[in-house]
Amino acid sequence: MALILTWTLLLGYGFFIYQVVQKTTPDRVSASGFFHGESANGKSPSLWLLVSSAAISWIFAKSIDNAASLAQSFGIAGGIGYAIYYLSFITAAIAIYYIRKRWGFHSLPEFLVNKYGALCAKFFLIAIAIRLFNEVWSNTKVFSLYFGEEGSWGYWLAVLFVTAFTVYYSLWGGLRSSLLTDGMQMLLAAVLLVIILVILIPGFVSQGLPVVDSETNSAGLTFCGLAFVQIFSYPFHDPVLTDRAFITSPKVMLKGFILAGLVSGGFILLFSGVGLYALTFGLAGKATLAVPKLFGLPLLLVFNAIMLTSAGSTLDSTFSSVAKLTARDWSNRQGKPEESEARFGRWSMIAIAVLGNLPLLGIYLGDKVGPAIILATTISGTMVMGLAPIFLLAFIPNAGRWSFNFSFWTGLSLGVLRVIESAFSVQIFPEWIAIGAGKYAPDLGINVYGLILCTLGFLLGTICDRIFDKKGLNSNT
Question: Tell me, what's the pLDDT at 473?
């Protein structure tokens, strides 16, 4: 019975989204609508469409799962820590507003080409391509676990169905379809969250919020510090976020991103209550699976629906960003998009839908090889710490390719070493580098000292740029 209802819910979700797409975009959109989200009459998205789309696109299935797990591990500090990441909206909004108002650029790749050179822009695009690749498997994996154990036929059928269905309507409307379905998905997710909270609140009323020991609380606060340090670089390697920063006027974007950050951050903070509930009642296993099982099938279906909604909204945004990256950003194409570019972008969507799910096959490679492959494909917040000076210090006149490379490769190198350290259980960084307490103390130390090194490298690069590139790659600034 449970299996039948779960699949009925999945098919119902598919039918609902299909109806939204058919009513909002009955005809295949133009190239401008496909890449920039414009309506049939050429209008840019409204403020609230931007807010709902940006917000739900950052409420990933994986982020929902992470928020609950962190609250289950560290208490309230864990939920707050994950919500801090959503201040990334404000970082991105301020930096991109400046980039657009001062120089008039229409995308981050265009800015990078003009400021730091075409080769540096391509390094950046490779990094975000890996990020987009990871968005596919990480989201399909989380929601598919509601249809069966990892590797079961139900699990794989769910991966196949949602991936194929999302590709279908993304091919039809690109970013325009993503924006319009995001609006409905945000509304649906909000309703589902309210239902979850209404069910959980009586338990908190009777037992109160969980209290953790001082050691656990310190570990949670350390994670909060890590999240705060990473918001200065994290948003710039997510094209799902930054692509939306160029589809409206700068003023609308600034206001919309601040609102989206508050909405999505608030959503994540409230959803972390699921982890707090698991901690309060001592539930074993992952909170997003243990809590609904405690209440039975109705709540399990609600959790299933909210995971589907968040995963679907992230997947279609990922596909539209891949299309733009391959068809326009890689070649730094400017001006009005052409139909040939949209056609190429659609083929790219199909390719990433297939390739992006391949890491899920890692479960068949053994207990150590599979997880190691997934870990190796993950571009973490640590790896991209070098992006902070590149975007936030872009106003420095002499900054050019040397500045970019000194900052970018320093951060990437430290991130790779940290991944190797974690994957193979070897000590690379000295113990004194840790800041705070708990398992995130080394990461906080690496990010703090690493960000300082990246910034110093960027500033040193400005001297090299002035000496070796006297005219400068950014002389037009």
Answer: 43
Which pair of structure tokens corresponds to residue 221? 């606060």
The torsion angles phi and psi of 329, rounded to 5 degrees, stand at -65, -40
Per-residue pLDDT reduced to its tens digit, 339-366: 999 999 999 999 999 999 998 988 777 6
- Give the CA count within 13 Å in the CB-facing half-sphere of 417: 15
Taking the CA of residue 142 as centre, how many other CA atoms within 13 Å lie in the half-sphere pointing to its CB?
30
State the pLDDT at residue 425.
83
Confidence category of residue 470, pLDDT binned at 50, 70, 90: low
What is the pTM assigned to this prediction?
Answer: 0.92
- The phi and psi torsions of 321 (rounded to 5 degrees) equal -70, -40
**Angle at which helices 401-424 and 441-468 cross, to 10°:** 160
Cβ proximity of 31 and 339 under 8 Å: yes
- Residues 380, 164: contact at Cβ < 8 Å? no
